[in-house]
From TrEMBL:
One Pfam family cited in the UniProt record for this chain: Mtb12_C
Domain of life: Bacteria
Database matches in InterPro entries: Mtb12-like_C
Organism for this UniProt entry: Nocardia bovistercoris
Protein's name in the database: Low molecular weight antigen MTB12-like C-terminal domain-containing protein
Coiled coil: none
Positions of region (Disordered): 28-48
Transmembrane segments: none
Domain Low molecular weight antigen MTB12-like C-terminal: 51-159
Family: Belongs to the MTB12 family.
Keywords on record: Signal
């Protein structure tokens, strides 16, 4: 079966939203485990960890990371895995651009050396909430490589960093 270009974009877009949505799914565990506390943006996550950013700060960095017009050299510290593929941030940016997706980070929760960002993902006019994981690396918060690779794979793109 052959799909038109717009049909392929719709299918790819639905796949991105589904992949992002699935990252937000979790088991229905009713145990009384302690939940992580929200950390004010001014608080330090730890002695060797970067400060926990506000959702606005993290969104500004994320928007820069997925902006195809921003040179790759300016994005190398924003995405984990660039050692293996310095073009990984641009591949991610192009994937979002080709899918016509927009992402706005709305909330940040700290988990020690990781952050979970809630994001509003809009694709073809449909809005969904997704989780975007960040990791502390070299004194900065970076988009987690596994998540970036999952998005690339979903959109039919590849990176040597994901091998």
């Amino acid at each position: 079966m052959q799909l038109s270009r717009s049909g392929r974009l719709v299918v790819a877009g639905v796949a991105v939203v589904a992949a992002l949505g699935l990252t937000a799914c979790g088991g229905g565990d009713d145990s009384k485990e302690a939940k992580p506390a929200r950390v004010p943006s001014s608080a330090r996550a730890g002695a060797n960890l970067p400060a926990v950013p506000s959702s606005a700060q993290l969104d500004a960095d994320f928007q820069k990371a997925i902006d195809p017009s921003v040179p790759a050299a300016e994005k190398l510290e924003m995405v984990q895995g660039v050692d293996a593929d310095p073009d990984l941030p641009n591949r991610l940016a192009e994937a979002y651009k080709s899918a016509g997706a927009s992402v706005v980070i709305t909330d940040v929760t700290a988990f020690g050396d990781t952050l979970n960002a809630k994001a509003k993902v809009t694709l073809n006019g449909q809005e969904n909430i997704a989780d975007v994981p960040f990791v502390a690396e070299n004194g900065r918060w970076k988009v987690q490589k596994a998540w970036a690779c999952q998005i690339l794979t979903t959109l039919g793109q590849q990176s040597v960093a994901c091998a």
